[in-house]
Write a structure and sequence with these properties.
The chain has 16 helices and 16 strands. It is an alpha/beta fold and about 450 residues long. The protein is globular, with a radius of gyration of 23 Å.
Length: about 450
């Protein structure tokens, strides 16, 4: 084995004597490729039709929506429109107005912008055309509570859902039936104008009805189901929320005529990013196993399962065996038990480290492709064989940090966080475990 300038052993493969990038650098590179593959500046021009004649309005919501709007204007030129994105995610546009708002908990900036966006759509007629730019994060950014629900009450419900460990599919059912804009209601406001919705998927299974809670897509769920979910997780209901869920909501049935002029198209998805990363790794002689792009579940439980798989693979590797890379995507959840600062990817990484217990020659990365893991401005973290020993050497207990859901603080102390800043896209979690012979 040769040694790289980074102090990591490089892998020597076969008769070609091909040296692989040091493990930590390789994992960071693969994450970067996954993000780059989903960049709206790459995906939008491929999907955008010629600009229609007549009035064209561009709207959107999500962490990638401003970048998507920027990409649209790079092709179509200045456009009329309004897009809502996360604070810090704005991009320069000539005609489209970009409004920043809070995520993951909605705020008044998002609520005010949503009302303006709905008003704009309601002014359109049958000869007009709407381009909707939808990406993950749109659930919080498109916010107009139903009935008498206040924005503060909506925030309360959203925070409780985020801490509950409920899967995103259940969260979205609740969000739709407490909203005037989700579950096809955004598209209904634009009817009878034609609408093309271009979407970047951040949800397991790439269901358009789940991306940003489906503002342009109908849904068969009911208010009673939303109520059952809130009761299942013991979330208290303000009177206004109970009143809304006691009657029919504004969520549209998928065959509603107001959706008949809508075309929904996914332009970037987790599977594409995983495949791009897999191709890069395979080009270096690594055996790649994609475990799935739609994996859900409790982050620490998935971590233990995948780390045990890695250990089992290594136990059966010959001394000169080809390295193996396990790739997976999807959206994990965290049931909040402590008062720490963490997110699904960092919690996954910490649980991986604890399960591997210092196993030699196994490295891992877990990051959110939007650059924000949970509510922290941190994409995720790197795990290496020295993770636990390094922690112990500076006097911190990894198990305690996991118990308190304080994974971001743990990796910050070690200097092993992955911090990207706004990536301007979002195809959800990227997880990779690199295994070579012990």
């Amino acid at each position: 084995m040769s040694t790289s300038p980074f102090g990591q052993k490089a892998f020597l493969l076969g008769t070609l004597s091909m040296i692989i990038t040091p493990p930590e650098s390789l994992l960071r590179d693969l994450f970067g490729i996954a993000v780059e593959t989903a960049d709206p500046m790459r995906r939008i021009p491929e999907a955008l039709p010629p600009k229609p004649d007549g009035r064209v309005v561009v709207i959107g919501a999500g962490k990638a929506s401003a970048r998507m709007a920027e990409a649209v204007e790079s092709v179509w030129g200045p456009c009329e429109g309004l897009v809502i994105t996360r604070y810090g995610y704005a991009r320069p546009c000539e005609g489209i107005e970009i409004v920043e708002a809070a995520h993951p908990v909605p705020d008044e900036s998002g609520a005010s912008a949503t009302r303006r966006l709905l008003s704009l759509l309601r002014s359109l007629g049958s000869d007009d055309f709407v381009l909707a730019l939808i990406s993950g994060g749109g659930s919080a950014l498109l916010t107009d509570p139903a009935g008498e629900i206040t924005n503060a009450e909506k925030q309360q419900i959203n925070e409780a859902l985020l801490a509950s460990g409920a899967p995103i599919s259940q969260m979205n059912i609740v969000r739709k039936h407490l909203s005037k804009v989700k579950g096809g209601q955004l598209a209904a406001a634009a009817y009878p104008a034609k609408m093309l919705a271009l979407m970047i998927s951040d949800v397991p299974g790439d269901d358009p009805a789940s991306i940003a809670s489906g503002p342009t897509v109908g849904d068969l769920s009911t208010p009673a189901q939303a109520l059952d979910i809130l009761q299942e997780y013991g979330i208290g209901l303000p009177a206004s929320v109970a009143a809304v869920l006691a009657k029919k909501s504004g969520v549209l049935n998928p065959d509603d005529k107001r959706l008949s002029k809508v075309q929904n198209t996914i332009i970037a998805a987790p599977s594409q990013s995983l495949e791009a990363a897999a191709n890069k790794a395979a080009a270096q002689g690594i055996e790649v196993r994609i475990l799935g792009d739609a994996i859900e579940g409790e982050a620490r439980e998935l971590a233990r399962s995948q780390a045990q798989m890695a250990l089992e693979i290594q136990r059966h590797m010959a001394a000169e065996a080809t390295p193996v890379l396990l790739l997976s995507g999807g959206e994990c959840t965290v049931t909040r038990r402590g008062d720490g600062q963490g997110g699904p990817n960092a919690e996954y990484a910490l649980a991986v480290a604890l399960t591997l217990n210092g196993a030699a020659n196994i490295h891992a990365i877990a990051c959110d492709t939007d650059g924000v893991d949970g509510a922290a401005e941190v994409a995720g973290a790197i795990v290496h064989p020295q993770t636990l020993s390094k922690a112990i050497s500076i006097g911190i207990d990894p198990a305690d940090y996991l118990n308190r859901n304080d994974s971001h603080s743990f990796f910050a102390r070690l200097g092993d966080q992955v911090i990207t800043g706004p990536t301007l896209t979002n195809v959800n979690d990227f997880r990779a475990i690199l295994i070579s012979p012990a």
